[in-house]
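Re: Re: ligand-bound prediction request (bumping)

Still looking for help on this. To restate: I need the protein modeled with pyridoxal-5'-phosphate bound, output as structure tokens. Inputs repeated here so nobody has to scroll up.
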Amino acid sequence: MTIPSPLLTTNARSADIMARARGRFPGGVNSPVRAFRGVGGEPFVAARGKGARVWDADGNEYIDYVLSWGPLVLGHAPDVVLDEVARVMQLGTSFGMPTEREVELADMIAARMPHMEMVRFTSSGTEAAMSIARLARAVTKREYILKFEGCYHGHADAFLVKAGSGVATLGLPDSPGVPEALAKLTLTCAYNDLEAVERIAREVPLAAIMLEPVVGNGGYIEPTAPFIPGLRRIADETGALLVFDEVMTGFRIAYGGAAERFGVTPDLTALGKVIGGGLPVAAYGGSRAFMEHIAPTGPVYQAGTLSGNPLAMAGGLATLRALTR
Ligand SMILES: Cc1ncc(COP(=O)(O)O)c(C=O)c1O
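Reply:
Sorry for the wait, this slipped through. Here it is.
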């Protein structure tokens, strides 16, 4: 029996493009997972996608289980997104001024997640998570952050850290270039280990306890029933902020995200992926009281030339409207 496999098809053009790419980009890619190192084999070069299918530069067709690592909740190139982005593009691609579409997308997020009373749009999940760390530190006037092994919050220095077990263990950077002094401020413990969290939170003044409410980046790990309510209690008792990184789970695990699914309201939330429908959008937000610490109402600086970009907002609005329908 012949098993249809991309490995049996021609891929001369993909191979040629990748050879050129390796001369221009580290590993031939602009984000490491695209190099296929984790799965083996040669990367193919995507040429187009529609629905659940993607075609490579040699014309081979694949069922796409990756879907851009999360944003394409409607599949590739849904007409509703293409039409809206094409329409909005005619009006201008970037303004450096406020636009109504930003308010509409923020309204839509708040309608599904009432705890996202105010948001700030960014262009990547990394920016959103990084900005949350800054805000949580500013609000609490504390410096330590607790994250969980296997949770990914983007590549900002504060999160590229794997602290050893135990309260007093100092964090060591996961990547060269992350200053050790900064890495020491990020502690980690095992996901679902409420006792460890309790111990750390009572010994170390934490600015934030941050987690993926369902871990997508360390395989698929669900929280045990007591875990997320327990984190809420510990955060309340110790003065830390509870942060949900819903870049992956937001608009995917429930209409109102993890807060609805688990019945626990976080202090701050990061969103990304789906809220741009395949265009570069992420956001962080929470109550007005916290978010008004952000510039220009407050002193915590964070900005972005393309934040709230009209095409990206259009992609997000079209996607969320379709999901809501
Ligand atoms: C949970 C989570 N947070 C943050 C990020 C970082 O987002 P971005 O790749 O847009 O910087 C990711 C990316 O996969 C993610 O899955």
